[in-house]
Amino acid sequence: MQRMTRQRSAVTEVLADTDDFRSAQQLHETLRSRGHGIGLATVYRTLQSLADGGEVDVLRTTDGEAVYRRCARREHHHHLICRGCGATVEIEGPGVEAWAAQVGAAHGFEDIEHVVELWGTCARCAARAAHP
Question: Could you tell me the domains of the chain?
Answer without folding.
Answer: 1-70 (1.10.10.10), 75-132 (3.30.1490.190)
